[in-house]
TrEMBL record:
ATP binds at D414, K415, T416, E511, F553, K576, R607, T687, G688, D689, R798, K804, N828, D829. SUPFAM superfamilies: Calcium ATPase, transduction domain A, Calcium ATPase, transmembrane domain M, HAD-like, Metal cation-transporting ATPase, ATP-binding domain N. This is Phospholipid-transporting ATPase. It comes from the Eukaryota. Mg(2+) binds at D414, T416, D825, D829.
């Protein structure tokens, strides 16, 4: 036994890296192998707990605070608050500390609650009861206690608690049906097969007596791939070795259907399951507007520091003369004279920082959060985005990304269930040039189902009749369709022998459509029973074929085959697949006629398949069996060996015909894609479907057009050329063509820009994404990106969920850093939804995982048009104006304070009263811009829907570029200069009241503040295009509130104030005629440059939006004609 242990260890750790790293041994039921077999060396594997939460009880406070203070604004206000605590400053620490504490606390509570919900969901999953088999009986335990090697029983409609190898089921044939809607988005039933030597174990006692080990690969995220083998031990004989593939693996998250119960052994648990490996943790997304805000904030911080530095230097220059440093009325104490000069200078610098810190008010961030939160309701209230059929409306899971909807440059969409309804319909079949259409119209009458055959061409002869029936038999037999045992879900039980239609289930909806279509043409597939396939022919006779082999479909071969034996002993190989895969292997048949029909159907957007066959002699089949068996039991390179075997078998075929199936597009899917392309948005389709199917759908939805030249980077092509040669060839083709086009970057709608469409599959993408040996990114990525940039549309087929996320990430982090949006309906789309800047889930039939993990959810793909072109457009316009306006009005607010220091000896004296300092951003100017940012419509919704090209006007963050930001900043500086020096020069050395008194410093500051409040509010009124009664109420009401507040604040002696320096100041100012004149003149002068700029730009260099506004002025709807809820 010791020698066996040593031998096993040497073999495992010295036989090679591949054996060591890529495989694990699972002991079924934790039973040791018999003496003389492999030594029992258990592996350390994780338990079955799933963790999706972000925080724990111990790390919540430090981790959350760290994340919140990563936001520059929060960190800035923290520093200001600490400075106010440490030194004597002109303003109280409460003015900075209280708002900051409120924002941090509310955000922490919100994020803590969301994570508590995730903990709760994890706990519910981990504590779900699971039935284990122990000592010959069922034991009920919590799911988190499940370990690798445990034998589990799962009942009908239950989900699998971990990844299981299928051992046996309640069905006699050892099969079970599974739905994987929560994994890959497919609601169709998939058939899985139990291990041949264990499928007879139907009781707990039988399954507990099983003595076996499983060798399989390490956990991998690929849902469609599994390689392993099982060694079944008996008392006397050597172990029986059976291959294990994806058809034997039941994945966590999938649900058992139409099967009473199954037994399986756990091979991957917890965070090692394929579902968990495909789950990408949800990181906090930040919009481009928020990033721009942070950059602008840094600029204003630099301005703030510059102001404080200038004032500090000027203060000590001013005080360099003794009588200014220590005037007779303000003698210094001895302690003040002894203080270090640098320390005093630093303290003064910090005091100036606090004095000017209002240039970046915390109220801006609060207003932005409120605008996003309240604005998100306009999506949920939109009645046009409500789907009557499903009773679902749009959902907003996060309001942080509203404006990002107006900046999308790339849309990545799933196909099945997103663009299409995933509802296949058999349209026709072509047998040797003769076309058969179910339910065809003949002489104005619809033929009944029993005789629904329309010979469009001439009727076939006797030999043709035989080929025709052979074709129908081939379609009836070459598939993996199962017949429902219990059809009560669809009505009363239907017997397969009753002459009525059977209820079929399959992993592929088009296989079901083919079998149902052939049924309407007279051949009915009945069942697979004890390895015999039964069908009923036109004469109502039952035909039985023994199923010998299934050569499964894969994305490289793009075909599948079955080998069957008829009742007369003849052995047939029936093969169906894509035309490009079948035609090269055909040696006989009417290829030209069938090819022309296939091409015609493909142009119409139908999914086409070709069908071929060949007869096999008994000796040929025996050779095929040995070849297949040798490849299937291989643990390493199994896929390559099987592919080589299939290649040898599927050749010298005789072509029978072709089929055409339609996967109906969702309503207005093509119109939506066309509108998005007109808006300058590139649309990519990422799907797990095969290339031909996906390409047909892309033609149907007008992603590809008839003049589109398709470029392929597929596994098939890479077998003939190296990846480098393929990419270089395509790059030369695309770049040469693009160089010959006119250099108009905005002519994205020209016919020339529709020339190229790229198709790439998952295997080719893996090679492109594969890092170099030194760990750097592959140089193929840049070549691939260059090709993609010059293609009007891209189709990525045979994509695993993580590959979809890789594609999104590749574009997201390319040198242009475009804004990406991903949309899908299934759990297989969750990774790309989380990776994209904006993730949208379709509330469809494939479960709600995509909708739950998305930022927004909509009922149908067609609603994406309004969400981006209308809501996204409005959101971006509104938030951009809010941000720029806030910075503008705070430059107007603080720059006069900076100028005032030159007239008060840099003594840190405030120009405005404390009440005005506090309420300027909170009360006097915040509500008008908040309402403006919720209701503004620079053009009507109908115009935005009618003219998608207007979306281009706001592309690439157009309204928050440096040019626009600098204009707003300089406009604020100009207005501040007008406020301050206009008031200063108008009243310098003059008596302005009836009794000869002159204005004091508080009256001067109040005058400047009054002009400022009126100017910034009227500036907003000038920028408003869409007036409602709410706008009027808020804008004029805020001005009225300022006047009333000032009158009350200075007209009443307030008992809670220790001193009242503003008493009677405002009233005295308004009693002066020159003050009224100053207010009117200075407001007019301040607004004049902006008005002139708007008029000149609109007349000389109008944008597309401004041209539309001008055209709509005559027919503008009356005031308040649009209900607020329609925004």
């Amino acid at each position: 036994m010791d020698c066996t242990l040593v031998r096993t260890l040497v073999h495992r750790y010295c036989a090679g890296e591949e054996d060591c790293v890529d495989s694990r041994t699972v002991y079924v039921g934790h039973r040791e192998p018999p003496p003389g077999a492999e030594a029992y060396i258990p592996h350390r594997c994780p338990d079955n707990r799933i963790v999706s939460s972000k925080y724990t009880f111990w790390n919540f406070i430090p981790k959350n605070l760290f994340e919140q203070f990563r936001r520059i604004a929060n960190f800035y206000f923290l520093i200001i608050f600490l400075v106010q605590l440490i030194i004597d400053t002109p303003t109280s620490p409460v003015t900075s500390g209280l708002p900051l504490f409120f924002v941090i606390t509310v955000t922490a509570i919100k994020q803590g609650y969301e994570d508590w919900l995730r903990h709760k969901a994890d706990s519910a999953v981990n504590q779900c009861p699971v039935h284990f088999v122990q000592h010959g009986r069922l034991v009920r335990k919590q799911s988190r206690k499940l370990r690798v090697g445990d034998i589990v029983m799962v009942k009908e409609d239950e989900t699998f608690p971990c990844d299981l190898i299928f051992l046996s089921s309640s069905r006699a044939d050892g099969t079970c049906h599974v739905t994987t809607a929560s994994l890959d988005g497919e609601s169709s039933h998939k058939t899985h097969y139990a291990v041949q030597d264990t499928k007879g174990f139907h009781t707990e006692e039988d399954i507990d007596s099983l003595h076996a080990t499983i060798e399989c690969e390490r956990p991998q995220p690929d849902l469609y791939k599994f390689v392993g083998r099982i060694n079944v031990y008996s008392d006397l004989n050597d172990p029986v070795v059976r291959p294990l593939g994806s058809e034997n693996l039941l994945l966590r998250g999938a649900a058992l259907k139409n099967t009473e119960k199954i037994f399986g052994v756990a091979v991957y648990t917890g965070m090692e399951t394929k579902m968990a490996l495909n789950y990408q943790s949800k990181s906090q997304k930040r919009s481009a507007v928020e990033k721009s805000m942070n950059v602008f904030l840094i600029v204003y911080l630099c301005i703030l520091i510059s102001k404080a530095l200038i004032n500090t230097v000027m203060k000590y220059v001013w005080q360099s003369e003794p009588f200014r440093d220590e005037p007779w009325y303000n003698q210094k104490t001895e302690a003040e004279r002894q203080r270090n000069l640098l320390l005093r200078a630093f303290t003064d610098f910090l005091a100036f920082m606090v004095l000017f810190n209002y240039i970046i008010p915390v109220s801006m961030y609060v207003t932005v959060e409120m605008q996003k939160f309240l604005g998100s309701y306009f999506i949920t209230w939109d009645e046009e985005m409500f789907d009557e059929e499903t009773g679902e409306g749009p959902l907003v899971n996060t309001s942080d990304l509203n404006e990002e909807l107006g900046q999308v440059e790339y849309v990545f969409t799933d196909k099945t269930g997103t663009l299409t309804e995933n509802n296949m319909e058999f349209k026709e079949c072509c047998v040797e040039g003769h076309v058969y259409v179910p339910h065809a119209v003949c002489n104005g009458q619809v033929l009944p189902a029993a005789a629904a055959i329309d010979m469009i061409d001439t009727s076939p002869g006797a030999g043709g009749r035989e080929r025709e029936e052979l074709f129908f038999r081939a379609v009836c037999l070459c598939h993996t369709v199962q017949v429902k045992d219990d059809a009560e879900v669809d009505g009363p039980r239907k017997s397969p022998d009753s002459g009525k239609r059977c209820a079929y289930i399959s992993s592929s909806p088009d296989e079901v459509a083919l079998v149902e279509g052939i049924q309407r043409l007279g051949f009915t597939y009945l069942r697979l029973k004890e390895n015999y396939m039964e069908l009923r022919n036109r004469d109502n006779d039952i035909e039985r074929f023994e199923l010998l082999e299934i050569l499964s479909f894969d994305s490289v071969r793009r075909r599948m085959s079955v080998i069957v034996k008829s009742a007369t002993g003849e052995i047939y190989l029936f093969c169906k697949g894509a035309d490009s895969s079948i035609f090269p292997r055909v040696v006989e048949g009417k290829v030209d006629q069938i090819r022309s029909r296939v091409e015609r159907n493909a142009v119409e957007g139908l999914r086409t398949l070709c069908v071929a066959y060949k007869r096999l002699m008994q000796e040929e089949y025996e050779g095929i069996y040995k070849l297949l068996q040798a490849a299937r039991v291989a643990l390493h390179d199994r896929e390559r060996k099987l592919a080589e075997a299939y290649e040898q078998i599927e050749k010298d075929l005789i072509l029978l015909g072709a089929t055409a199936v339609e996967d109906r597009l969702q309503e207005k899917a093509a119109d939506t894609i066309e509108a998005l392309q007109k808006a300058g948005i590139k649309v990519w389709v990422l799907t797990g479907d095969k290339m031909e199917t996906a390409a047909a759908a892309c033609y149907a939805c007008r992603l590809f057009r008839r003049n589109t030249q398709l470029l392929e980077v597929t596994t098939k092509r890479l077998e003939e050329q190296s990846l480098h040669d393929v990419l270089c060839e395509l790059s030369k083709t695309v770049l040469h063509r693009s160089a010959s086009l006119t250099r108009d970057s905005f002519s994205g709608l020209s016919a020339d820009m529709q020339d190229y469409g790229l198709i790439i599959d998952g295997a080719a993408l893996s090679l492109i994404m594969k890092p170099c040996e030194d760990g750097s990114s592959s140089h193929y990525r840049e070549l691939f990106l260059d090709i993609c940039r010059n293609c009007s549309a891209v189709l990525c087929c045979r994509m695993a969920p993580l590959q979809k996320a890789q594609i999104v990430k590749l574009i997201k982090f390319s040198k242009e850093h475009p804004i990406t949006l991903a949309i899908g309906d299934g759990a297989n789309d969750v990774s790309m939804i989380l990776e994209a800047h904006v993730g949208i889930g379709i509330i469809g039939k494939e479960g709600r995982q995509a909708a739950r993990n998305s930022d927004y959810a909509i009922p149908k793909f067609k609603h994406l048009k309004k969400m981006l072109l209308v809501h996204g457009h409005f959101y971006y316009i509104r938030i951009s104006e809010l941000v720029q306006y806030f910075f503008y009005k705070n430059v107007c607010f603080i720059f006069p304070q900076f100028l005032y220091q030159f007239f008060c000896g840099f003594s840190q004296q405030t120009l405005y009263d404390t009440a005005y300092l506090t309420l300027y951003n909170i009360s006097f100017t915040s509500l008008p811009i908040l309402l403006h940012s919720l209701t503004e419509q620079h053009v009507s919704m109908d115009t935005l829907k009618r003219d998608p090209a207007l979306y281009r006007d706001i592309a690439k963050n157009a309204l928050l570029r440096w040019r626009v930001f600098i204009y707003w900043t300089f406009l604020g500086v100009f207005d501040a200069l007008v406020f301050f020096f206009g008031a200063y020069f108008m009243f310098e050395n003059t008596t302005v009241t009836s009794n000869g008194q002159v204005f004091g410093n508080w009256t001067f500051g109040t005058l400047v503040f009054t002009v400022m409040v009126f100017t910034v509010t009227l500036k907003l009124a000038l920028d408003t295009h869409y007036w409602t009664w709410i706008n009027h109420f808020v804008i004029w009401g805020s001005l009225l509130f300022y006047v009333i507040f000032s009158l009350l604040w200075g007209g009443i002696i307030w008992p809670f104030l220790s001193y009242q320096r503003m008493y009677y100041v405002f009233i005295r100012m308004l009693s002066s005629g020159p003050a009224w004149l100053a207010i009117v003149l200075l407001v007019a002068v301040s607004l004049l440059p902006d008005v002139l700029k708007k008029v000149l730009c609109r007349q000389l260099w109008p944008s597309a939006t401004e041209r539309v506004q001008t055209a709509c002025l005559v027919s503008r709807p009356p005031l308040g004609s649009h209900p607020l809820a329609s925004l």
